[in-house]
Amino acid sequence: MDKTRPDTVAAPRRFPLREVVLFAALLLAVLGVYAVMGAAYSTRMLVEAACYAILALGLTIQWGYAGQFNAGVMGFVALGGFCAMTFSVPVNEAFWGSELPGELGRVLLTMVAAALVVFGATRLDRLGVPKALRTLIAVVLAMVLYLVVINALRDVTDQIEARAGFIGGLGLPVGVGWIVGGALAGGVGYFIGRVCLGLRSDYLAIATLGIAEIIKAFLKNSDWLTRGTATVSPLPWPVPAPAEVGFTLARALYLSVTAVMIAVIFFLLTRAYYAPWGRMIRAIRDNEVSAAAMGKDINRRRLEIFVLGCILMGIGGAALASFNSLFDPQGYLPLNHTFLVLVMVILGGPGNNLGTLFGAVTVYIIWIMSGPIALYLMELAVTLGQASFGWEAPTNLDSRALQARVFVIGLLITLVLRFAPKGLLPEKVIHHG
Amino acid sequence: MNELVFFLNNVVIAGSVTGSIYAIGAVGVTLVFSIMRFAHFAHADIMTFGAFMVMLLATAFPTAGAAIGVPAALVLLPVAMALTAALAVGIDRAFYKPLRAHGVKPIVMVIASLGVTLMLQGLIRLFSGTGGQSLYVDDRKEIFRLTLPLEGVRVPVVITEPQLYLFVLTIACVVGLHLFLSRSRLGKAMRAMSDNPDLAQASGINTHTIVAVTWVIAGGLAAIAGTLLSLDVTFKPDLSFFLLLPIFAAAIVGGVGHPFGAIAGGFVVGFAETLAVFNWGVLLRPFRDSLPEWLAGAGNLAFVGTEYKIVVPFFILVAILVWRPTGIFKGKVI
Amino acid sequence: MPILDARDVHGGYGGMNILNGVDMAIEADEVGVIVGPNGAGKSTMLKAIFGLLHVSQGEIRLRGEPIHNLSPHQLVQRGMGFVPQEHNVFPSLTVQENLEMGAFLKPANVGRMLGQVFAFFPPLKDKRRQPAGELSGGQRQMVAMGRALMAEPSLLLLDEPTAGLSPRYMNDIFARVREINAAGVGILMVEQNARQALAIADKGFVLAAGQNRFTDTGAALLADPDVAKSFLGG
User: Which parts pass through the membrane (chain C) (predicted)?
Assistant: First the structure.
């Protein structure tokens, strides 16, 4: 995994000591987990870490390559998970056998028609209607038609929930859902990027934070589409399931699928990073004004990179949901699916793909192991406390121990920003000779 | 007429309550932004922290307000404000100041503030658990029902005791803030620094002092907003995630860097939320007989269900970013 | 003892040296004027004196006391005032509030100094409740100078006070500078309008490429044919 390439003229070849030492330590840690927790558990952890690595790669190109801060990774992960679920779970005959699909289709057509009418109303000024009047007409029309459509939709979805549970899946191969998941996440990213990328980077953070909560709220409350809090499971795997070949082997097969995905993404990203496109992206990040002065289309490049990052998050989220074999919209938490990924990226080294991989696996191992360790420490404290001064410990200790992780992740973010702002494996600044 | 009273209760009063809370929160966000030029994401958690302090104090001294007939929480609010202000200054010293001294990009400060968000949430949940608790420890929440002296009106106008405190305190905050910013030496220096930090320094204004004053004000206001929200409903450690988007939307709607714009923005967002979840079908009920059947038959004419309330501030945010990124009062830095 | 004595000053931005050994000394009752071609380091020198820029080598003394590496607000406390060339008012503050900010460190003086500044710049008195951002360029320059005077400085640094002003305002500003100086304030200013500025200067410094080229009285520099040929456009 030697990253020194012929075009790095001013950075002389050197032995990648730092990389070797860090990855050797990581390998030792993984072996340690295998020794303590057993192969099935540890392989599961590695597969999850691999899925997170895809998310982290998505964030590292947004934040590390381009300086865009996406605070709503969770939303894109959830979209990926939703697509993985919808495309792969079996077809629901109770729904497709009834007249409900037709009614749902009719509502969707009404929705399209209403959108067209409103769009037409916004163009009324071309026909000589005064602009103020046009705006009034468009707004009133939009509100009325919206109410009509939403009521029709409510009727149909209530029917679906009452008679068929939910619309079910499409029963397609797992990979289709993953690809569509990436595409859907990219589409939402395009919308957000169009609105925010021309403005200060703070606004992107606020908007992505918001869209993530909205996606979650939508998936959680649309019982007709996702079964909401009732969750959907099991989701099929792209490889033989544990029931057929045993836990360890099945998970190892899944791990190899994700490993191949990471390898492909890694290869393509590294190519892109050193290609003119990647140079341009970095030029924009480092000096926007001069990049614009050289005639680069800044907003277009920014949008490309943002959408690309979102696509990776969608794919990673899809792989994660399929692996968990469960789609639970309530299980998507900012802490687990946004901030954990953020820590992986800034600790590993934003803009350095290898560093990001290292960060993803390392942080995930710490994350998984911190629960049991924190609980153990808490119990130890309680035992000592009771023994020495008869302290009555609160009853819900284990749920509180988990809150300690929230604190630790937050502390980690601030400490890394202050003491290792470039991460453990910093991006190598290359001077092209 | 009953429908109108229903509208009054569910939109006018509820909107004013939410609007006031968002307004006080957004002022803090906009002040921090105008002095330090970054979006302070931990603000909502500082609000929660303030409410948490009040809860601890009210649990410790449940009878503090009995003598003058107000809830203990309200009597102890100034103490909580001081503690929260101290926390805000402390957070700045420990986490933001070193980064500022390094001259990092504003977005790095944003990420650091997210780190602080998590730390505060972790701490509050560690100590308070994750459930909801009432701030009315030993007191009783008064509910006033005013029946309008009109014929045929049976539904009373309902307003609760904490809501009255909320309105009084909001007006006091707005007046106090106005006097501070337009009359006092430090307030004017704050506005000067928000206009032009370099010139402020060249004028001999100690920018470190102004930064500290900003945190004190932002922290104090956050404690008020968090406490009033918790008095109105209940205290929950995860209040902050529901507050973050509306407060930022309010600050941006009002024009970032404009304290009074933020107040207006807070009410815009608050009323937009209540109007959007209000079932407009209620107002059509009296005319049921004279309406076409498809309209009279429509059961629920709310724009969004309460579970999608968060869409409203987001929609406002996106709309304002698309059409007028400087906000309605022409904010400063975009 | 000179009020300002700078010797062999080196400095610049981010490792790039713009000043390569500049000497500059003025007495407490003098007007000093810095002229020179674009990029000579004139404004950079003012910023170096006012602590806005890292001085890598050399020494700057105010009344004999070394001051380099003091922060601007400490320098204001020690009697130095600075009027930047651009962005030199607080646009959303009123004229009076702008002036009050100048006396931030001496709040007791505000009333007395306001009276003096208004007497000095009469147009400001009528506009004192107007936001400074709404004023014309010349009036803004008055606000900026007035703000610096509010702290009762003993040395005032002016960075191109007449840049972008019409000739009528330009002469007015130069007249004010003389009056401020007559009231006992030492002045050091950078100017593009070199002839007019040197005409009122007790000392003139011609900089080029970050070094002193000529240093003499204003009148002597104006009379020097070399200076005239190279720096005053013939």
Answer: none
